[in-house]
Specification:
- By secondary structure, the protein is α/β, with parallel strands linked by helices.
- Among the domains are: 251 residues, no CATH class; 79 residues, Pectate Lyase C-like.
- The protein contains eleven helices and 33 strands.
- It has a seven-stranded parallel β-sheet, with no helix packed on it. A six-stranded mixed β-sheet has the order 2-3-15-14-4-9.
- The longest helix has 32 residues.
- About 2% of the residues have low confidence.
């Protein structure tokens, strides 16, 4: 259920069954001040102050109360005692008056005494127990989730009888109040409540329009010593599901009698706040759900800058530079500029520079402001790209310009030539940074895949580089940092070589043996690695983006923090490899093997795996987001922290796997997926579509299958103790010999399911569909709850 509300409003919800109907109770507490001109406080202040002042009392239980009532969380203070050390306290409100005399004993050193007589009645007081009624065996068996047959709604009211108005369902607007002796300084307090009204709307699943829920001001809490009051508005609406799952969203608002708003207004607000793109911006606009004529400390204030400090600073700096330039010009050409000296100096105004800071948008204008600026940014970006293309074209057309000079940047930066050019330019020398070379190289290592491809070296250049590498290896020299861009290194024996930070963009490494080699930080962008041996190699922080890997061996390879963007991995072997925080973006996979690998902190989005083997892997925090997996195995994997989000998978296997803290959610689909003999702890399958799910012999603990579609599932012999299976679709499922002790299966669909030998001890199957069940007579059903029965389909 999505909650939409102003920041000033709290919310308490309660789902309860009354008269055979499931109901959603909504309470909206709003804190106000008790000043002469009251204002609304924020929910944060409410949540901070209420537990402190109310002590052990509950602010509200969320039930819709039939009568108006008031409560007072207060103390009597010794400062107001008379000569007999007696303090007289009292409240007059809405036609009710309650006065007490509080005696302070001589031996009492405390300055105040708590006034429990104005607080809620305990649930076990005779007054409330009489209203609750008594259960009898027949009614408890018929509907154990509701209230006793003789239950009276007045039980929802918690105030003492002399603080209730049984002739009123709600307090009227602007009720006056008077309080005596409950403030440490003021002996008398009086005022009028803010005339507020609560509004509530729900949208049900499948419905398109708002449905109003009538709200009444039925409870008022006074906190005299804190000069605060809490107005609690109550309402209720019937729901189809016992957990209100049929309610898609709930929206609250606050109004005043002289400023009501239409259903059309609230429909527009709901549409803005549920629009995926800019809902967060509209949620900052509290004015849509709050009265405009009442002061509130809760809403985000509109920006009101004290002055254009940054603009003034820039303007003063610019004007100083202009005056200095004019002075130098006058000194250089006094005669020529003699007449100009008498003219007014050029100002920023003449340059159309703004003299004040641009106006900041109001909160109500923020969404439109952001949309306008995003559109302007997109337009400016498109124009800049068009200008860049035109500039490159003009540059390429200039006589004497080498071919390809107007094209985009490609290959590693020519550091030496660039630095020599800069050092030869006197004006640029002071601008040279000591670490400029390192920064340029670091930028290239991270972004080589985003520039044009480096050219492939000529056969002569490749042959020369191969000879140079062999000679260095013979001498035992390191190859770290070598520039091998575009070089053909195919077939070379580079086992154990140190190629850390080497530049090998567009290099050909097909058939090259790099076993146990060090390639940490190397650039392998667009490299060709067909049947390359990288067994045991170190590729930490290497960049393999756009690399073409086919039948490449990454056995035991370390790929921690490597970048693999749009890389191709066909039939590659990552067995026993170690991948931690590896960036795997838009890669192409064909039958990869990760058997025994360690996969940590990985997020894989919008990629396809077919025939992948993750068996025996150790996974710690790994997510598949909007991916497609087919015929993929996670058999015997050790998994902790695992997620499938909006992912489609078929014929997956987790047989014998140990899975902890995992989720298969958000429109994920699992077709014919197996968990045979697996151990699942804290795994969430909520709302997952998993027809033909195979859980035979699996052991689960704290798993949630609620609202999942498990038609035709095989759960034979599965241990599903205390499993959450609310509204789970188990049509045609086989639960024979399964352990369902304490399983919560309310509303589950067990049509044509097989339950022979199942243990349903203390399982809850209320409202479950039990048509054409097979083997129920052979199941263990002691203390199983079957009522209330499912309602007949409409």
């Amino acid at each position: 259920m999505k909650i939409i509300k102003p920041m000033a409003a709290g919310i308490v919800t309660r789902i309860y069954r009354l008269d055979g109907i499931e109901r959603l109770g909504v309470a909206m507490p709003v804190m106000t001040t008790l000043e002469e001109t009251p204002c609304i406080m924020g929910e944060q202040e409410l949540m901070r102050l209420a537990p402190e002042v109310l002590r052990t009392a509950m602010l509200d239980a969320g039930y819709a109360k039939p009568h108006a009532e008031f409560l007072v969380a207060a103390n009597a203070f010794a400062t107001h005692c008379d000569a007999q050390r007696t303090s007289r306290v009292g409240v007059e409100f809405g036609g009710c008056a309650k006065h007490l005399a509080v005696a302070f004993p001589e031996t009492l050193d405390e300055a105040s005494i708590a006034l429990d007589e104005f607080m809620p009645l305990a649930i076990d007081t005779p007054e409330r127990r009489a209203l609750y009624g008594e259960w009898d065996q027949a009614s408890a068996a018929a509907d154990p989730f509701g209230f006793p047959p003789a239950f009276e709604r007045a039980w929802f009211n918690v105030a003492p009888p002399d603080q209730q108005r049984h002739d009123l369902q709600a307090w009227p607007d602007a009720v006056p109040w008077r309080i005596a002796g409950m403030h440490p300084i003021h002996a008398r307090q009086q005022g009028t409540l803010l005339p507020l009204r609560g509004r509530c709307f729900v949208i049900r699943q499948g419905a398109a329009c708002l449905e109003p829920v009538p709200m009444r001001l039925s409870t008022v809490w006074f906190m005299p010593d804190r000069e605060r009051a809490i107005l609690v508005f109550h309402g209720e609406t019937p729901v189809e599901q016992f957990d209100a799952n049929d309610i898609e969203s709930l929206m609250l608002a606050i109004e005043t009698p002289d400023e009501p708003r239409s259903m059309e207004h609230y429909a527009q607000v709901h549409a803005k706040r549920t629009h995926a793109q800019d809902a967060a911006l509209h949620s900052l606009v509290d004015a849509d759900l709050m009265p405009s004529k009442v002061n509130s400390t809760a809403s985000f204030p509109d920006p009101t800058p004290s002055g254009p400090a940054w603009q003034n600073s820039m303007q003063r700096y610019g004007e100083r530079l202009m005056h200095e330039a004019q002075a130098r010009a006058h000194a250089a050409q006094p005669t020529t500029l003699a007449g100009a000296a008498a003219q007014p100096s050029v100002s920023f105004g003449a340059l159309n520079m703004p003299s004040t800071a641009p106006a900041l948008p109001r909160m109500s204008e923020l969404a439109d402001f952001v949309a306008k600026n995003l559109a302007m940014a997109d337009e400016a970006t498109a124009q800049a790209r068009a200008n860049a293309v035109a500039a490159r074209t003009r540059m390429a057309a200039q006589p004497g310009v080498p071919q390809g000079a107007g094209a985009g940047r490609r290959g590693p930066p020519q550091i030496k030539r660039l630095m020599d050019t800069l050092r030869a330019t006197p004006a640029a020398t002071p601008l040279l940074q000591p670490d400029l070379e390192g920064k340029l190289l670091a930028m290239y290592r991270q972004s080589a895949q985003h520039q044009d491809a480096a050219f492939t070296a000529s056969p002569e250049a490749s042959q020369s580089a191969r000879i140079r590498l062999r000679e260095k290896l013979v001498r035992g020299e390191s190859l770290a940092g070598e520039d091998l861009t575009g070089i053909d290194l195919s077939g070379l024996d580079l086992r154990g070589a140190d190629l850390s930070n080497a530049l090998m963009e567009s290099a050909n490494l097909s058939g090259t043996d790099l076993s146990e080699a060090t390639l940490a930080g190397a650039v392998l962008v667009r490299a060709t690695l067909h049947r390359t041996q990288l067994t045991g190699a170190n590729l930490s922080e290497a960049n393999l983006s756009l690399a073409n890997c086919e039948e490449t061996s990454f056995k035991g390879t370390t790929l921690d923090r490597a970048t693999c963007e749009k890389a191709i991995f066909r039939r590659c072997d990552f067995s026993a490899a170690h991948l931690e925080r590896t960036a795997l973006r838009e890669c192409e996979w064909e039958a990869p093997r990760f058997a025994g690998a360690a996969l940590n902190d990985l997020v894989i989005a919008e990629q396809t795996f077919s025939g992948a083997d993750f068996s025996g892997t150790t996974i710690r925090k790994m997510s598949f987001v909007q991916c497609t997996l087919q015929e993929t195995s996670f058999d015997n994997a050790n998994i902790e922290g695992f997620g499938f989000l909006s992912t489609r998978a078929s014929q997956l296997r987790f047989d014998g796997a140990m899975i902890r803290k995992a989720c298969f959610i958000k429109d994920t689909r699992l077709d014919a997926t197996r968990f045979a003999g697996a151990a699942l702890t804290e795994v969430n399958f909520r709302s997952t579509t998993a027809p033909g799910l195979y859980l035979a012999g699996a052991r689960t603990a704290q798993c949630d299958f609620s609202d999942a579609m498990l038609t035709g599932a095989n759960l034979r012999g599965a241990h599903l103790r205390d499993a959450m299976m609310i509204r789970t679709d188990l049509t045609d499922a086989d639960l024979s010999n399964s352990d369902l002790i304490g399983a919560f299966m309310r509303g589950a669909n067990l049509t044509r399911a097989k339950l022979a030998g199942a243990n349903l001890f203390r399982a809850l199957l209320a409202e479950a569909r039990l048509d054409d069940l097979a083997g129920l007579d052979a199941a263990y059903t002691v203390q199983t709850t079957w009522v209330p029965r499912a309602r007949a389909a409409a």
